[in-house]
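Q: What does the predicted 3D structure of Aminotransferase look like?
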Amino acid sequence: MAVNLESSEQVLPPEPDKRYVRDRMVWNPAMHAIPVSGIRRMVNRAAELDDVVHLSIGQPDFPTPKHIIDAHIHALQNGQTGYTMDAGLPELLTALKEYYNAKYRSTLDEDNFLITTGATEGIYLMITAMAAPGREFIIADPTFLLYAPLIRMNGGQVRTVPTKASEGHQIDPERIIDMIGPNTHAIILNSPSNPTGTVYPRETIEWLCQEAAYRGVEILSDEVYDNLILDDIDYPSVLSCATDLDGVAVVSSFSKTYAMPGLRVGWIVADQNTIRTLRRYHMFTTTVASTPAQWAGVAALYGDQSCITEMVTEYARRRDRVVDLVGDTPGLTGYWPQGAFYIAPSLPAGVDAGKLAMRMLEETGVCVIPGDAFGEGSSNLLRISYSTSMDKIEEAFARMQPWLERQPEFARYG
Ligand SMILES: Cc1ncc(COP(=O)(O)O)c(C=O)c1O
């Protein structure tokens, strides 16, 4: 392209007044609530090293089933590239309604659902729509890392319920109920849990739902791992424990169940008034989820479900082995996680998992995530993900075990 340099002076904007020019962005102070992710810190360092074995992965290591990919491509080729209705693709709303009513014996309708861009958007909408100064939210420590920052960004207060590896990271419902006070706004549950893999029993969920309803406290339940239940046990969704939908919302997605996290489709299940309000708010976040990906979701729900059984069988096989390996590792306290693909064993008292995990990565090439990524009270836990092959799991522990034994903090466990 020919440029007329002589005339460039005339077309350049006038020099801005330097007194009003800032050379960097001045953020809303709420941004201070967003921490540097403990996951990123580890994964970024790992990217600089050779020969790393990752036990750090937070997404399924299986390929997305072919019929789901085909539906996605088919939707693209058939012109399904416009916006959908604000609540989501009508066919997906119907598919979800049928799926949930069959799975949890509920009586939901299409207008009990809002399709979101992954469960992440559902969590964002729910928490930011509820959190406000003076309102308290009860969460487990450790728990999924999005909740606390979103609560704090919007002026809410976080109250944590510590859990222990030696107790399988179960929460004590009585303790939570005792914590409820006049400022308690909501309890956020995540079962199966990331980072612990813990599944709460039905008595826990039922008790919490009942007492929360009685006290006018909301329950937000993140159930993205509800299909990854690794033993033959009952999975108590909040939807099958609460007497009605008043004050209860569930967020979930296709990401983990159907190994399609990159397609970014999730949803919120709640009473119709809540969904109506959130539909308005959703217009200001992502408008709608990806249309072809919503068609992929329809195929996932109506298609062959054996892909889930195959994945769960393999996760369970790996879980069994990882629990044995953790048990054989001096200084680690394990337990029996029944869901998702994580375990969060604890280190000997006083050991800082953040420093230890970084040193272990640099010296052995094994990448795990330290517990402080999931809660301020969890700095002596490691999150181990077994969303990787059995060979990689064996290799990682073969490197980790002798290394841990050599650490002075572990000497008395050798
Ligand atoms: C507990 C939990 N909730 C929500 C999400 C977000 O899932 P999505 O991919 O649907 O946004 C994750 C992802 O790791 C998760 O572990």
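A (community wiki): The structure tokens above were generated from the sequence. The domain at 66-302 is CATH 3.40.640.10 (Aspartate Aminotransferase; domain 2). The radius of gyration is 23 Å.
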